[in-house]
Specification:
44% of the residues lie in helices and 12% in strands. The chain contains two helices and three strands, in the order βαββα. Strands 1-3-2 form a three-stranded antiparallel beta sheet, covered by helices on one side. The longest helix has 18 residues.
């Protein structure tokens, strides 16, 4: 899944790095797929339902910190 993170004020690369460092959730910066994808991150769902739910919970927490 490709997600636009531009409303956070971060690039996809900044967002992915901070999300990993702060919430331990790994995503792929969209810029890795081309410069026109710089405001996006890629999320993979190739894991258990429990891991997906926990990852999304952590992302929601992370989003709340940066979209106030």
């Amino acid at each position: 899944v490709f997600v636009d993170v531009s409303k956070t004020g971060m690039t996809g690369e900044e967002y992915a790095t901070r999300l990993l460092e702060e919430k331990y959730v790994a995503t792929v910066p969209g810029i890795k797929l081309g410069k026109e994808c710089g405001d996006f991150i890629r999320i993979s769902f190739a894991t258990s339902d429990e891991n997906i739910q926990e990852g999304l919970r952590r992302m929601k927490e992370f989003e709340a910190d940066y979209t106030k």
